[in-house]
Design brief:
The complex is a heterodimer of chains A (325) and B (373).
Chain A: H1 2-34, H2 42-60, H3 63-87, H4 92-115, H5 138-144, H6 146-156, H7 161-179, H8 181-191, H9 193-198, H10 203-229, H11 241-251, H12 256-275, H13 289-304
Chain B: H1 10-35, H2 40-52, H3 55-80, H4 88-105, H5 111-140, H6 144-166, H7 189-193, H8 208-225, H9 227-237, H10 239-244, H11 249-275, H12 287-297, H13 302-325, H14 332-347, H15 353-361, H16 364-372
Helix pairs in contact in B: 1-14, 2-3, 2-13, 3-8, 3-11, 3-12, 3-13, 4-5, 4-6, 4-11, 4-12, 5-6, 5-11, 8-9, 8-11, 8-13, 9-11, 12-13, 12-14, 13-14
The chains are: A mainly alpha (325), B mainly alpha (373).
Chain lengths: 325, 373
């Protein structure tokens, strides 16, 4: 049993860390899509943010400045998306695709032009990063508390501030959506914008607020990737995480607590996949690492197919709002 | 893409507006070049000379054009049916598996004998990968954008798995199949035309280019000159009206996605049978996404698509040359331009419409023509 715990607890710890970018991006998508703006540009926004975080933290030596810069860049990309899909009622999918390419191309181009390291930003010292925080009593817990201590040290303690922020975001999002006037309006504008408009509330303003919130969250996600999980920006470092987050959002049926659970599950699959590489499982034998990589997508497709409940998006998502004349 | 407007004369709607959009995209790209303190005019010159200045450069340009025509047509056919096929990357990858299976099975046979089978395999495998998202959309109402994205990732993991564990070259760690023999591999135009005194150098353009041109004609005939094409356009513009006209939208979704996947699949003939001569993990190399830009820019019309694909061919080849001459500007510049084209010709495609409407509404004679027509 001890062996099992010794194996599984570090995997859970790394699952938590791997799920953080998914969580931020997924909640960004949640705000945006609940307001009726489909966002497949999560990937691009996180990537742009990661680059900004890496570059700005390098020049200022401050992780907080990196975070601020990342949020700023991510909001800019959000506003491009908003301008195209809210103001000009353009196709939201097309706009999202454009943002993904813009971020992927610009970060690599500027990274090479400015730093000449194949699109990387320079390596950061620890002082310019968000470092793991050790909770009180870690040393004694490791020695005295057995498996519980192990869990405390590896899973509860030892993460950067952004990790805890991501988990605080979950109940806050739920509360904002379900218990505040803004949340009610936000959900209404995603289901029935005409009703909101009739009530004298600006559909465009609400949707802009939603995409800006999405920008802030993607900014945090990108920051985590570049200056908390690693110590530099690497080209295309989001590596599809924005799309897995999108899958998680669909899988969670656009609900905050399910979204958290799904992101943790997908993070766990990721962690387990790399941990189990080359080690055979009991009864099943060796599982190719590709199976773990493919599972989030397969699960989402199966869910979308309606075999395990039905994922129904907000009614007005993806539909530009036109006032009746 | 083709939101026909009653306010604008067709010439403005189909020529002026897209051209203005693309020019905006290029101006924005020029600003990016300025931002990294290089001269945009110099950049354009290098790109054009690199892409069109030599027969070899032109050969490379046409090779890229070939792929972009296939993916552009693929996105366009789906779009006519009101669908957004964002999955050409994955469909091309799976088609690559099909082409590899067929060509390796017939390895040693002359290429002209194998080609029809390779084409068939490419289309069938590409269509098969498009079928599942199509079926899910048609019968289960799952959003095709999400499912095709998922299927891109699934195809990418599938092909790595197959190349590492099943189809890979014996005794090699590299994720690739063994090379095709010279007899089976589709010869390049450079080799075919050398006896005629035309020197295309090492450029990879090959007879697949002719298949791409034929595909343009076939799609044009299909969309505007067949009953099925009419049904596709009707279902795409107004699904309710289509139902009243006796058209089954679910059937149209599936058929148009099969055609779309099949067209993308042809890219694999170009890559696997001709250019690479083997199956590698990344078959489409981003061409699937370029297809979105190409279809938007070409307004889903085969002629427009061919022209847009050629333009992107110039960008890709010119961009490669550019990175040699100005090391500060990497090939990522092309991705930026591509993004700006998608943004300004696609998502912001109607930004200038009100302005153009104001300009052209001042001319009563044109308005009169419109009402008569």
């Amino acid at each position: 049993m001890t062996e099992f715990f010794d194996m599984i607890i570090p995997v859970i710890g790394s699952a938590v860390r791997l799920s953080i970018p998914l969580l931020f991006a997924c909640f960004a998508g949640l705000f945006s899509e609940r307001s009726g703006v489909v966002d497949i540009g999560l990937e691009g926004k996180m990537l742009g943010a990661a680059f900004a975080a890496g570059a700005i933290a390098y020049h200022t030596g401050s992780a907080t400045a990196g975070l601020m810069g990342a949020i700023f860049v991510s909001i800019l990309l959000s506003l491009v998306h908003g301008f195209a899909s809210i103001t000009h009622r353009g196709n939201q999918i097309v706009s999202g695709v454009a943002i993904n390419f813009l971020a992927s191309g610009l970060t690599a181009l500027l990274g090479q032009a400015w730093y000449g390291e194949g699109g990387r930003t320079p390596q950061l010292p620890d002082s310019a990063r968000f470092m793991p925080i050790d909770w009180p009593g870690v040393a004694t817990a490791r020695v005295n508390l057995g498996e519980l201590g192990n869990f405390y040290v590896n899973v509860i303690s030892g993460h950067s501030i952004l990790v805890y922020a991501a988990f605080v975001m979950v109940p806050v999002t739920w509360w904002v959506l379900q218990r505040t006037r803004f949340g009610l309006r936000l959900r209404a504008v995603g289901e029935n914008p005409h009703a909101v408009d009739t009530a004298g509330i600006s559909v465009a303003l609400l949707r802009y607020l939603a995409v800006i919130i999405a920008g802030v969250l993607c900014g945090a996600g990108g920051t985590y990737l570049a200056i908390a999980q690693s110590s530099e920006f690497v080209r295309d470092m989001t590596a599809g995480k924005g799309f897995i987050a999108l899958a998680a959002l669909v899988f969670a049926k656009w609900r905050p607590f399910s979204a958290m659970a799904t992101c943790l599950l997908f993070g766990f699959l990721d962690a387990a996949g790399s941990r189990l590489q080359g080690t055979p499982l009991p009864f099943i034998g060796q599982v190719p690492v590709q199976v773990f990589q493919a599972l989030p997508y397969i699960l989402t497709v199966v869910l979308l197919a309606g075999f395990i409940g039905k994922a129904i998006p907000p009614k007005a998502s993806g539909v530009p709002y036109t006032k009746d004349r | 893409m083709s939101q026909a407007s009653r306010e604008l004369p067709p010439f403005v709607d189909y020529v002026v507006l897209p051209v203005v959009n693309v020019i905006t995209a290029f101006i924005a790209a020029g600003l990016v070049v300025l931002a990294i303190s290089e001269n945009p005019v110099e950049v354009v010159k290098i790109m054009i000379v690199g892409a069109l200045g030599t027969p070899e450069g032109l050969g490379y340009t046409l090779y890229y054009t070939t792929n972009f025509i296939f993916t552009g047509l693929s996105v366009a056919v789906a779009y006519h049916a009101g669908l957004f096929n964002i999955g050409p990357e994955g469909q091309a990858a799976v088609a690559g598996i099909g082409v590899a299976l067929v060509t390796l099975a017939f390895d040693g046979a002359p290429w002209w004998l194998v080609l029809p089978f390779a084409v068939a395999a490419a289309m069938v495998f590409g269509a098969a990968w498009a079928f599942i998202p199509a079926w899910l959309q048609a019968r289960r109402g799952s959003h095709i954008v999400i499912t095709t994205i998922m299927f891109n990732f699934l195809a990418a993991t599938l092909i790595v798995y197959l190349l590492v564990n099943v189809m890979g070259k014996a005794g090699s760690m590299a994720p690739e199949t063994k090379m095709l023999s010279d007899a089976t591999r589709l010869p390049l135009f450079g080799t075919l035309l050398k006896p005629l005194g035309i020197d295309l150098g090492q450029s990879p353009v090959n007879p697949t280019f002719l298949i791409a041109i034929a595909a343009c004609v076939a799609v044009w005939l299909l969309i505007w000159h067949t009953r099925l094409g009419y049904e596709i356009r009707t279902a795409g513009t107004n699904p309710q009206a289509a139902v009243y006209a006796g058209i089954d939208p679910a059937r149209i979704i599936i058929i148009s996605m099969l055609i779309s996947g099949g067209l993308t699949g042809l890219l694999a003939v170009n890559e696997v049978m001709a250019v690479q001569g083997r199956l590698l993990t990344d078959v489409a190399q981003g061409a699937g996404f370029v297809g979105i830009a190409v279809a938007l820019m070409g307004r889903s019309h085969p002629l427009g698509i061919a022209l847009a694909a050629f333009l992107f061919g110039i960008l890709y080849q010119g961009g490669a040359e550019l990175s040699f001459d100005i090391p500060k500007i990497t090939r990522d510049m092309i991705v930026v331009i591509q993004a700006l084209v998608i943004l300004f010709a696609g998502a912001l495609g109607n930004m200038y419409r009100p302005m153009l409407e104001r300009i052209f509404a001042r001319r009563p004679d044109r308005r009169a023509e419109e009402t008569e027509a």
